[in-house]
């Protein structure tokens, strides 16, 4: 069983995310944007910290409404930097705001975030990383990998003997429609 599949069961913070979200296919723009943003906030921190701060991050970032976050200005940046309930890293906050504008731009160039991802799928990890770095800010290899795992674009979020695995397969994630490749 994968490491997360061993840690999450029975854990009050990890289990709900593990059982109902991690690895399931996502098309909703706000959910995709939230997941990308949460992965950015996780860089250098534990996933448990991010999950514990998730509700506060959703409040602070207008439920990850792309249009609302893209409209954030200098006063919003200052508000966020002083919000003790969230992860207050200037580079990460600035990246999330800039990335909201990039998601808006994807609407015009690709039909939206979900359509952009679908058009790129499947790619080897290095090619995914290159595309994300060309499009978004604060894109490290693990940020991209975990985003793709969490949204169903890469296999491996769950071990095949994990109960969540069967539910994900039934939801027909993008990775299932293509030959398996190692991330």
From TrEMBL:
Q: Which GO terms describe its molecular function?
A: DNA-3-methyladenine glycosylase activity; metal ion binding
**What highest taxon heads this organism's lineage?**
Bacteria
Which InterPro entries does the record associate with it?
Adenine_glyco (IPR005019), DNA-3mA_glycosylase (IPR052891), DNA_glycosylase (IPR011257)
Which residues are involved in binding Zn(2+)? 5, 18
The coiled-coil segments of this chain are none
Q: Does the keyword Zinc apply?
A: yes
Which keywords appear in this protein's UniProt record, sorted alphabetically?
A: Metal-binding, Zinc
Question: Is the Cell wall biogenesis/degradation keyword given for this protein?
Answer: no
Protein's name according to its UniProt entry: DNA-3-methyladenine glycosylase
